[in-house]
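Recall that a protein's primary structure is simply its ordered list of amino acids. Everything else, from secondary elements to tertiary packing, is in principle encoded there. The following example makes that idea concrete.
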Amino acid sequence: MSGNAKRYFYLIVVFILAGCVEPIEFDIDREGRQLVVYGHIDDGSDRMFVQLSRTTAVPNRFQPEPGARVTLHDNLGNEGRFFSANDEGIYYYSEFTMQIVPGRSYVLRIRTAGGDFYESVPEEIPLHQAQSDIYVNFARIEVNTGSFNAVITKDVMQVSAETFLEDPSKQYYVRYTPIQTFRFDPTNFPDIFNTIPPACFVNRRIQPENLVLFNSNGFQGTAVPRQFIAQNEIDYAFIAKNVITLETHSMTPQAYDYWRKIRILLNNNGSIFDTPPAAVKGNIFNINDPDEQVLGYFEATNKSISRVTAWRGDFPYPVPDDPCIYIPGQDEEKYLRECIDCRILEGSTFNQPSFY
C-alpha cells in the first residue's frame, strides 16, 4: 500500500429489485475510484438492472458511473442490452432484446465511458426452483435502546416463510427478499382548481440488514419449516392497504457464498472475536487488468414470488395517524417533506403496481 493511501469504510449501496437500499460496509485500501457493480437478472422480473458507481475518497460517498455500455450474453450466443434513463449509473434491462431462461448461463459485459472493459464470471440460472408460502403476524416487542439499559416497546409486523423444494434430490441455495408496498397520499392543500395531488406507491425492503439465506446441504425432506425472515415497525405506511411480497431466489453456490460473506459483515458487531470487515471478492473483473479490485456481484436467479395483503383493520395495535392530513392554518414547512413531495420516499413511483 502506498504511503499516501488511506483506509476507509465504504457503504456499498445495493439496490435489490424494489429500488430499496441496503448498506454494506467494506474496508478498502484505496483512495477511491474503484468500480462498484451490482447486477441482477432472473426469469420473472420486469425491473432487472445493473448499478454502476465508483468509490470516492470521502467515506460512504459514491459517484455514479454513467455513459457505460452494458450488455448481457448467454451461452447460446444471444445478446441482451441494458439502457440508462438518467445519469445515476443505473441501467435497466430491455426484456425485448433477449429472453432470460433457467438452465442457461449469462455473462455481464461493461464498457465504461473511459474505455475500460469489465466482465463477470458466467452465472447459470438454476433449473430447479424453491417456492415459499408467506406468513404475516403482528407482535409487541421490547427493545433495549442501549442507553442506560432503557427498554421501549414497539409494535411490529413480522414476516416468516415456509419453503418447498421442487426436487429434494437437488442442492438448493436460497436468498429471501421481503418487500412492502403501500400507497402514500401527499397533503391535499386547497386551491382554486380543487386539484388532488397524485399518490405515490412505495416499495421498500423490509429490514434489509437481516439477510436470510438457506442451503439445503444435509437437509432432509421437501418442506423447510417456517422461519423468521424480517420485521418492521408499524408506522404511517400501515395507514391503508399493504401488500407484502416475498421473493425466493434460487441461486448458484457462488452467489450463495458471496451473500454468506456479506451476511457476516452485516452481523459484525465489532467484537475483537468477529471477522474484521474486508472487501468481499465478487465475480466482476477488468479484462485488461485482472488484478484490479472490483466490488459487487452480478447474479442470475430462479425467482418465485408469494404475496399477502394486510389492511389497517388487521392490526391489533394502534396505527399512527396520517401525517399528511391538511390542517387549516398550519404552515407548509411544518409538514413532513414527503407530504409535500412523496417522490422523495425511497422506492416511490406514481405508477400503481399491477398487484396492488
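Residues 253-266 form the longest helix (14 residues). Residues 1-23, 270-277 have pLDDT under 50 and may be disordered.
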